[in-house]
Amino acid sequence: MCFTVSFEGKAIKAVKEHLLINKDLRMRGEFNDTFYLVSGFSHPKLPVIKYESVDVSEWGLIPSFAANEDKANEIANMTLNARSDTIHEKPSFRNSIKDKRCILPLDGFYEWQHINKKKQPYYIYPSDGTVFYLGCIYNTWINRQTGEVRDTFSIITTDANQLMEKIHNTKKRMPLILPKNALQEWIDPSTKISSVDSLMTTYSAELMSAYTISPDAGNSRINRNIPEIKNKFI
After folding, report:
1. Do 150 and 107 form a contact (C-beta atoms < 8 A)?
2. What H or E segment, with its residue span, contains residue 19?
3. Residues 127-185: tens digit of each pLDDT
4. How many CB atoms lie within 10 A of CB 206?
5. What spatial distance separates the first Cα and last Cα of the chain, rounded to whole Å?
6. Domain ranges in the chain?
7. Tally of CB atoms within 10 A around 115
């Protein structure tokens, strides 16, 4: 699974570089935040790269069939992630995977290893010091009562690789991480579904690094959005 992430300096730089290279794109929405650690259950708004824009989007995909705001919020808590093996079947996801795909750059993400009755948090990041590009899907939901427009997304997950099997040792899942040379193919709405499916594969463990961090990373009662949350912990 992937419920807790780091979106800071390197990810922000990656978004800016994408906009600089693709001068015809524009960023929709404002983003001035730094997230050293942020939980998807707080539904943060993060910049996601789409085919024709970069949108500041809310984490937790709301499908078009959500009838009202209460239902939309309820569904959003259950759609932070979308499993690659069932994404074509689930009503909340099956339309978006066809032609509403996007990318979320991240400095890294967090996962918890279960040891007896304790949970040990890890920080996972790219071995080459760059960023992870997570494969996501999105949908724009319109509140029929108020007319409010909410752009929302979900992170796709795959089977865990050897590294993540040891860390996320209960569910054995990990986010879909795409190589940089596959980004354009992923976000292009005209890409064939067979090609999309071929991209939803498990990322190589050799391209990832991880270390243990303080148990405070799992304490939602304290401020975890601080640089020190990523300090190594033995």
Report:
1. no
2. helix 9-21
3. 999 999 999 999 999 999 999 999 999 999 999 999 999 999 999 999 999 999 999 99
4. 10
5. 24
6. 4-230
7. 9
